[in-house]
Amino acid sequence: MFPDGTGPAADPAGSHHERRIRSFQPRRSRVSPTQADALRRLWPTWGLDIDGLSRIDLDAFFDGLPVVLEIGFGMGEATAQMAAADPDTGILGCDVHTPGQGNLLGLAERNGLSNIRVANGDAIILLREMLAPASLAGLRVYFPDPWPKKRHHKRRLVQPEFISLAATRLAPGALVHCATDWEPYAEQMLEVLSAEPALENLYPGYAPRPDFRPLTKFEGQGLDKGHVVHDLLFRRRDT
């Protein structure tokens, strides 16, 4: 669909990384003409394939802004709203949904949001191979796939190994913000985050919904069904 690096690659890391259970399934569903146009024009400047081959110079990529990593941004509406509300913070959005990547880039262009970049591929490889220690000002994981069936729980993103890795990439004082409307996953998130010695909970349990997290269409649908949304706010310790 996007030859010669003019858009996100179908399998950016290829076969040079180990096989393991993944928390996501690549979704290269139908891309609208508007999304495809945004990807072809903006990807070479604002896009990044997670190939695991080199470290990212975040200072150069974001013109010196502190950078928050958002894993799984869907169609990007909430990401764009947060970027507009906080132009002095860069947002590196990581996802594998091609229409969402194109939609977010289009939103960034239309709204003059120069503090958004889009990464395509596996967030684990991004954290482990391509981001320097203590390089992130924050981590956001909003409404990740809950993998509700017991046999699929091992696919959930928020696991001890993931949080331990992510903590090494967070600068002292960096904020970890997770949100889910799936009660059992919220309980797992709280347990895993609380067990990570590099992090401290800002609240005695779940956090109130912060003003800076916009209400998404997905969240609204869940609330209409009676779902309870849980936010978790943890901070990277200074030592």
Automatic annotation (TrEMBL):
> What keyword terms does UniProt attach to this protein?
Methyltransferase, S-adenosyl-L-methionine, Transferase, tRNA processing
Q: What class of enzyme is it?
A: transferase
Reactions it catalyzes = guanosine(46) in tRNA + S-adenosyl-L-methionine = N(7)-methylguanosine(46) in tRNA + S-adenosyl-L-homocysteine
Question: For this UniProt entry, which residues form the secretion signal?
Answer: none
What segments bear the compositional bias annotation Basic residues? 17-30
Under the heading InterPro entries, the entry gives: SAM-dependent_MTases_sf (IPR029063), tRNA_(Gua-N-7)_MeTrfase_Trmb (IPR003358), tRNA_methyltr_TrmB_bact (IPR055361)
Pathway participation: tRNA modification; N(7)-methylguanine-tRNA biosynthesis
Q: Which Pfam families match?
A: Methyltransf_4
What does the record give under GO molecular function?
tRNA (guanine(46)-N7)-methyltransferase activity
Binding of S-adenosyl-L-methionine, residues: E70, D95, D122, D145
Could you tell me which residues belong to the region Disordered?
1-32
Q: Does the keyword Plastid apply?
A: no
Q: Which Gene3D superfamilies match?
A: Vaccinia Virus protein VP39
Which residues does the record give as substrate binding sites? K149, D181, T216, K217, F218, E219
* Protein EC: 2.1.1.33
Family the entry assigns = Belongs to the class I-like SAM-binding methyltransferase superfamily. TrmB family.
| Function noted in UniProt | Catalyzes the formation of N(7)-methylguanine at position 46 (m7G46) in tRNA.
Protein name stated in the entry: tRNA (guanine-N(7)-)-methyltransferase
Q: Which organism is it from?
A: Streptomyces mooreae
Native organism taxonomy: Bacteria, Bacillati, Actinomycetota, Actinomycetes, Kitasatosporales
Gene from which the chain derives: trmB
